[in-house]
Design a protein that fits this description.
Elements (H helix, E strand, L loop, with lengths): L23 H10 L13 E5 L4 H12 L4 E6 L2 H15 L6 E5 L5 H14 L5 E4 L17 H28 L4 E5 L10 H4 L4 H6 L6 H22 L11 E5 L14 H14 L3 H11 L10 E3 L2 E3 L8 H18 L2 H6 L4
Parallel strand pairs: 1-2, 1-4, 2-3, 4-5, 5-6, 6-7
Antiparallel strand pairs: 7-8
Helix pairs in contact: 2-3, 2-10, 4-5, 5-8, 5-11, 8-11
């Protein structure tokens, strides 16, 4: 008998997703006309963490987890004030008890905040069944984080990678204690497949192309960050796979909600928002529709491990993800920075607490 709370993933050759002969804009219209299924699986008995939970698809995903019965929903938000407001809005819609939602503040602009956040999560709960790492940032101009790294790189890649690694011990303990496989899901984008080699050839590496002010481009850099995110996920999927002959101890996957009407571009000008409004009205899903993809990704079975989930199917990665040297170099560049901040990273990756 199949588990009613596990979604078995199809792959794109089995059907699903836009026809391969459609162009970019036609594919986007297809996505609007064919929203993903709204998951109905139960998260009763589970503890769920969502970062970027106060707005957009993160908020809508949090609403769904609460409505689907999560015992404890942890909201990863930038401040306690935002968390309390988000909690109230969720409870107004789901009518759950107040103690089913907890708040943990995190500012992904700094590594220190990430470390404190994970420590808070570990105090809030002895188990973590789902970690949906969704927080992200789109920037119209180069901006340095307190660490000195470009802000989008810091938020979307470096801090998110550190958070994922620091959460691994709690996810592993949950797997051991419950006999279930926790989920670690990253929000990503099919846009990673649009990256061209010439975008970073002059810089010498993907990392340098997004890290250095002289090489930075707002549109290209965001997509390259998503490609680096694929490299991180590929490396961590090997760490969480366990022994080669066994299913993964933690199911790790990527989820692409497609273009959605959110405030991801909140730092862009008013003029940019006015210009983009008609485009989004035609080519973007709603935040609620996008959240369906994120929530269903965290209910997939082990066949989704290391997979890319979008349009209710496991989709092929972009061409450059198949370049193992490129992916390994990108992972190495990220890992060295994260290890420099936290010496425990290597021990955790090797299976330690």
């Amino acid at each position: 008998m199949s588990d009613p709370n596990i979604i078995t993933a199809r792959t794109s050759p089995e059907g699903g997703g836009p026809p391969p002969d459609l162009g970019q804009y036609a594919s986007m219209r297809w996505a609007v006309k064919h929203p993903p299924a709204d998951p109905t699986v139960s998260f009763a008995g589970k503890t769920v963490l969502v970062t970027g939970a106060n707005t957009g698809i993160g908020f809508e995903a949090a609403v769904k987890y609460s409505a689907l019965g999560a015992d404890l929903l942890i909201l990863g938000v930038r401040s306690a004030e935002k968390g309390e407001d988000t909690k109230k809005r969720i409870l107004d819609r789901t009518h759950r008890q107040s103690d089913t939602i907890a708040i943990a503040a995190v500012d992904l602009a700094t590594f220190a905040s990430v470390r404190d956040f994970v420590a808070t999560v570990e105090k809030l709960t002895p188990r973590l069944d789902v970690a949906l790492l969704n927080a992200g940032l789109g920037n119209p101009k180069f901006e340095a984080a307190p660490s000195g790294w470009e802000m989008g790189l810091q938020v979307n890649v470096l801090s998110t990678t550190l958070m994922a690694i620091l959460l691994l011990p709690l996810l592993r303990r949950t797997a051991s204690a419950t006999g279930n496989r926790p989920h670690l899901t990253f929000t990503n984008s099919h846009g990673h497949g649009m990256v061209k080699r010439e975008w970073f050839a002059k810089s010498g590496s993907l990392f340098k192309a997004v890290a250095e002010r002289d090489n930075w481009n707002p549109d290209k850099s965001y997509l390259m960050l998503k490609l680096i995110g694929c490299a991180v996920a590929e490396a961590l999927s090997a760490v969480t796979r366990g022994k080669a002959s066994n299913p993964p101890e933690i199911i790790l996957n990527l989820a692409c909600p497609a273009l959605c009407k959110t405030d991801l571009g909140r730092k862009f000008s008013v003029a940019s928002h006015i210009f983009m409004a008609p485009f989004l009205a035609i080519f973007a899903r709603t935040a609620e529709q996008g959240a369906r993809t994120l929530v269903s990704a965290t209910a997939l079975g082990p066949e989704s491990h290391a997979g890319f989930w979008t349009h209710d199917v496991l989709y092929p990665y972009g061409e450059l993800v198949n370049d193992k040297d490129l992916m390994q170099q990108a992972w190495h560049d990220v890992l060295e920075i994260v290890k420099e901040d936290n010496p425990d990273v290597q021990r955790i990756l090797e299976g330690g607490e």
